[in-house]
């Protein structure tokens, strides 16, 4: 009897202990052993990557799939194909931009029906917290969602309104009682202005960093008062870092993430009329970007996730006041981050920690996030030295709209294995649920 189904060898295997030469042995759907690169490991199939890196499958906990209801923006089939092509083996779907939004168990059932049989990678779900649905949080939690998302400012879609401070406190009290996590779009609506014209400068001025900082300050105070675990989504302003660092030092249960576009792009480089760059909160200055990298290095920001928020091309009109706000980048996150990380002296182990281990830990996804014995055999062959230029029309995203179109990137995903099998076009993804 051959003891292993698959052995993948690489001189650059990224494990929780760092990068080393290793052989990863797979039995069934799980990693059965991590041995020396040259160790004899009899297997039914073997792949020797040589100097091509072997990473754990990435975990993207911030993806707007938009199905059901807005499948023409994106859907489970297209989003998960794009994820696999980008080395992402697990995504957690956001509760809004689909119709209905995932704010009760009936809506969750509608989402499951839409996703069934269409997923090329594993998929989990966040629930939504909106005015009047505190009673729905416990049933969603019991069903296995990974936590709850809310907005402190308008979401951009009428069916997912924000929570005021009183409503947010009540929701956080319920989240604390459940032992769950609230993930929060933190911008203070009182500090947000109306963009007065079509330019990027006017749009950026309408959403100042102070609006993020003020909302994070209020959120931290509410988390401290209720004992709830909170996570700040898509931090774009470095003005938030000191607030987060001080709160964590005091023992407040708060974590935070940022996104590839905040680490790679800068306001000074946004071309006028190119509203593929528009997102909320906005891409800020190059100096601010440098400070976000420092926040990652210090661990104030723990995760880098896509906030893939796609739309049809007609919604990205060349007017920053009127265009839909969202960056489409699910397939590109790994090379975008790696291109910038290597320039700044970071290694593949850092990228795997930010984009795999920490997002898996944030959501509490069992078996994901690391090349370690007993975990799911989610693996990625990644050539860190490959050069390529992004062609939006060749991406698996449903709509060819991304700010990275035409950008030169470093690094390419060659093969993605999901639970020990290459992702080959057959939708074998499964639903993921909170560990009980």
TrEMBL record:
<dbReference type="GO" id="GO:0050897">
    <property type="term" value="F:cobalt ion binding"/>
</dbReference>
<dbReference type="InterPro" id="IPR050138">
    <property type="entry name" value="DHOase/Allantoinase_Hydrolase"/>
</dbReference>
<keyword id="KW-0479">Metal-binding</keyword>
<dbReference type="GO" id="GO:0005737">
    <property type="term" value="C:cytoplasm"/>
</dbReference>
<feature type="domain" description="Amidohydrolase-related">
    <location>
        <begin position="54"/>
        <end position="423"/>
    </location>
</feature>
<dbReference type="GO" id="GO:0008270">
    <property type="term" value="F:zinc ion binding"/>
</dbReference>
<dbReference type="InterPro" id="IPR017593">
    <property type="entry name" value="Allantoinase"/>
</dbReference>
<comment type="pathway">
    <text>Nitrogen metabolism; (S)-allantoin degradation; allantoate from (S)-allantoin: step 1/1.</text>
</comment>
<dbReference type="InterPro" id="IPR011059">
    <property type="entry name" value="Metal-dep_hydrolase_composite"/>
</dbReference>
<dbReference type="GO" id="GO:0000256">
    <property type="term" value="P:allantoin catabolic process"/>
</dbReference>
<comment type="similarity">
    <text>Belongs to the metallo-dependent hydrolases superfamily. Allantoinase family.</text>
</comment>
<keyword id="KW-0659">Purine metabolism</keyword>
<comment type="subunit">
    <text>Homotetramer.</text>
</comment>
<protein>
    <recommendedName>
        <fullName>allantoinase</fullName>
        <ecNumber>3.5.2.5</ecNumber>
    </recommendedName>
</protein>
<keyword id="KW-0862">Zinc</keyword>
<dbReference type="InterPro" id="IPR032466">
    <property type="entry name" value="Metal_Hydrolase"/>
</dbReference>
<dbReference type="Pfam" id="PF01979">
    <property type="entry name" value="Amidohydro_1"/>
</dbReference>
<dbReference type="GO" id="GO:0006145">
    <property type="term" value="P:purine nucleobase catabolic process"/>
</dbReference>
<keyword id="KW-0378">Hydrolase</keyword>
<dbReference type="InterPro" id="IPR006680">
    <property type="entry name" value="Amidohydro-rel"/>
</dbReference>
<dbReference type="GO" id="GO:0004038">
    <property type="term" value="F:allantoinase activity"/>
</dbReference>
């Amino acid at each position: 009897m051959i003891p292993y189904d698959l052995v993948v060898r690489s001189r650059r295997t990224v494990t929780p202990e760092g990068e080393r030469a290793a052989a990863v042995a797979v039995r069934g759907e799980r990693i059965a052993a991590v041995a020396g690169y040259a160790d004899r490991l009899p297997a039914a199939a073997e792949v020797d990557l040589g100097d091509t890196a072997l990473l754990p499958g990435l975990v993207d906990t911030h993806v707007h799939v938009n199905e059901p209801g807005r499948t023409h923006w994106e859907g489970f089939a297209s989003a998960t194909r794009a994820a696999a092509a980008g080395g992402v083996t697990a995504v957690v779907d956001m509760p809004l931009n689909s119709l209905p939004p995932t704010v009760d168990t009936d809506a969750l059932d509608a989402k499951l029906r839409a996703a069934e049989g269409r997923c090329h990678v594993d998929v989990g779900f966040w629930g939504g917290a909106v005015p009047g649905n505190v009673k729905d949080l416990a049933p969603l939690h019991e069903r296995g969602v990974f936590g709850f998302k809310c907005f402190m400012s308008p979401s951009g879609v009428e069916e997912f309104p924000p929570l005021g401070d009183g409503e947010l406190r009540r929701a956080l009290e319920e989240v604390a009682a459940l032992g769950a996590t609230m993930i929060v779009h933190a911008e203070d609506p009182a500090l947000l202005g109306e963009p007065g014209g079509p330019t990027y400068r006017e749009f950026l001025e309408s959403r100042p960093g102070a609006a993020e900082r003020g909302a994070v300050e209020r959120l931290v105070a509410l988390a401290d008062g209720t004992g709830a675990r909170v996570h700040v989504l898509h931090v774009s302003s470095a003005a938030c870092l000191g607030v987060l660092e001080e709160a964590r030092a005091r023992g407040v249960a708060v974590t935070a993430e940022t996104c590839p576009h905040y680490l790679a792009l800068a306001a000074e480089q946004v071309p006028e009329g190119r509203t593929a760059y528009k997102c909320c909160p906005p891409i800020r200055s190059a100096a601010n970007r440098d400070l976000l990298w420092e926040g990652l290095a210090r661990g104030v920001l723990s995760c880098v996730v896509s906030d893939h928020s796609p739309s049809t091309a007609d919604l990205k009109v060349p007017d920053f006041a009127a265009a839909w706000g969202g960056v489409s980048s699910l397939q590109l996150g790994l090379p975008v981050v790696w291109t910038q990380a290597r320039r700044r002296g970071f290694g593949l182990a850092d990228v795997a920690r930010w984009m795999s281990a920490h997002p898996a830990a944030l959501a509490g996804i069992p078996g994901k996030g690391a090349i370690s014995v007993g975990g799911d055999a989610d693996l990625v062959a990644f050539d860190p030295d490959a050069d390529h230029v992004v062609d939006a029309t060749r991406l698996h995203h449903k709509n060819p709209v991304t700010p990275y179109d035409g950008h030169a990137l470093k690094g390419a995903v060659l093969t993605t294995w999901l639970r020990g099998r290459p992702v080959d076009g057959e939708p074998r993804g499964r639903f993921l649920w909170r560990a009980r």
